[in-house]
Design a protein that fits this description.
The protein is mostly helical. It has 12 helices and 3 strands; from the N terminus they run H-H-H-H-H-H-H-H-H-H-H-E-E-E-H.
């Protein structure tokens, strides 16, 4: 992919003019791509990801510290909600990162779960690239625009809370019952198994979710159940 595409992307999507566009290109380069292009590519994005992870956490921590007086435990939960894989992966999708990813042929055919992780990693790497090339303030502006801008929605929806804990509080307060999770189905080989889990309240299914582990399936089922309770809270 021509470097001019990355230059245009940086200016139009990231609002950044890179001095060294190769940093941004590296941020989109997955390890698998390097394995197939060893003669022309010398670096993948994992070091930038490592740096960007730290910058992202610092920006979010600073924002929460300066704007909220809540206890450390609450601030920690809010920070976790902002920097978790789902949040930064969604930011990468919103900024249209996927067409710029440099992946091997095999990774291009990978699972949706693997692609989501790659997008989240690339977000951290891009954050690291902006920090190295343009400094902390530019990285802070990017993180504020892409991630911190979602915070009001996270607060309003309650999604910063652990879904299972939140659901238990609602189910006990509204229905006087504790949610029960049951594995409904599991498919696939042991190394790539998908579990379907249902969550029941008073014997009635309130949510269903899939994940690569029973715990992940439970969390997604709890999220669906929370949506049910949100929709029926005024019923």
């Amino acid at each position: 992919m021509d470097s001019s595409i990355y230059v245009t992307f940086a200016k139009e999507k990231l609002n950044v003019t890179f001095d060294d566009i190769n940093l941004l290109i590296t941020a989109f380069t997955h390890r698998s791509y390097l394995n197939e292009h060893k003669k022309t590519v010398s670096e993948h994005n994992e070091r930038l990801e490592f740096l960007g992870d730290a910058v992202l956490e610092l920006v979010v921590t600073e924002y929460l510290y300066r704007n909220y007086k809540d206890p450390e435990g609450i601030l920690t939960n809010w920070r976790s909600a902002l920097v978790r894989t789902e949040s930064i992966g969604a930011a990468a999708v919103a900024f249209d990162f996927e067409p710029l990813l440099r992946l091997s042929r095999g990774e291009k055919r990978g699972t949706e779960r693997a692609r989501a992780q790659i997008l989240a990693n690339s977000f951290e790497a891009v954050t690291g690239a902006i920090y190295l090339d343009q400094g902390y303030d530019a990285a802070k502006q990017f993180v504020t625009q892409s991630v911190i801008s979602t915070f009001e929605h996270i607060l309003a929806s309650g999604s910063w809370m652990d879904p299972k804990s939140h659901l238990q509080e609602l189910a006990q307060s509204q229905d006087g019952a504790t949610p029960v999770y049951k594995v409904m189905n599991e498919v696939g080989p042991d190394h790539d198994k998908i579990f379907t889990v249902g969550v029941y309240v008073n014997g009635v299914i309130r949510g269903q979710g899939e994940g690569p582990s029973k715990q992940a399936g439970q969390q997604k089922a709890a999220v669906v159940a929370l949506i049910y309770y949100q929709a029926h809270k005024n019923a």
